[in-house]
Amino acid sequence: MGLFSFKKKEPQIIGLTLSGGGMRGIAHIAVLKALEEYNLKPQIISGTSAGSIIGAFYSFGKSPDEMMEIVRETSFFSRSALKLSKNGIFSSNFILKLFKDYLPEDNFSILKIPMYVTATEMTHGIVDFFSEGELFAPLLASSSVPFILPPVRMGDKIYVDGGVLDNLPIEPIIDKCDFLIASHVNSISYDELKKMSLMKEFDRILHLAIAKSVYSKVKHCDIFLDPPKMTKFSLFNKKYMDEMFQQVYEYTCLELEEKGYRKD
Q: pLDDT tens digits, residue range 87-110?
């Protein structure tokens, strides 16, 4: 079971915050599937990086099953989908194509559930939240992992991944709901370290740096979902996506059962 437990509370307005996590964001789809089955469907959502993309697709009306099918059909961090960029290892065109293929309009107005997208403004080192106007640029900015994907310019500001400064963005919705659920998909394993690739070192350093900020927010959540040892799954590879989905789905169901919730 999870480290954090809470007394069952009957929600009126459910808010959901989705962390970043690269391809681990697939785990949020498993969380959404479980929440629906336990009659805990969110009415307002915030997200950063991968969490903002999953949140936007769900807010638009894509079901968890439909989102999993989209993930299966889409090439993400593959050689065929990526091209070198002067501001990042890869171009973000493949992410933009995903939005254009599955979202009918570049505007927050298409979303059926209120959604807040988090991005880090580089010049002043602050977090901005987007909830209206154009949709694709904030989503791109929110998921622009530094050095991996290029920054995104919006007006006179330059943005990168929202997770740099806020990887669990509860702030824009905490006062707009009376029951807050947070899904964090970057729990760190403290098992003995083995030889790591450069990308695994990057992953570990990044999430060690932001972990304190994330866990400081647990006290504000009615349910905090933190599936264990998620860093065994790659940030940039969906090879084990089905294993991850099943693991997180089962974890979420068990956590909800422990807190007194039952499937309809």
A: 667 788 889 999 999 999 999 999
| 264 band by pLDDT with thresholds 50, 70 and 90 | confident
User: Which of 46, 49, 59, 144 is an active site residue?
Assistant: 49
Query: 145 pLDDT exceeds 80?
Result: yes
Q: Is the dihedral of CA 122, 79, 50, 211 positive or negative?
A: negative
Lookup: tokens for 143 = 């998921």
The H or E element that residue 60 is part of is helix 50-60
Q: At what angle do helices 26-37 and 241-258 cross, to 10 degrees?
A: 40
CATH code of the region 14-258: 3.40.1090.10
161 in catalytic set: yes
Average pLDDT, the chain: 89
* Residue 219: per-residue pLDDT: 97
> Which residues lie closer than 8 Å to 192 by C-beta, 6 or more apart?
none
The one-letter amino acid code at 239 reads: K
Tell me if residue 128 is catalytic. Answer: no
Catalytic residue among 59, 92, 142, 161: 161
Question: Residue ranges per domain, the chain?
Answer: 14-258
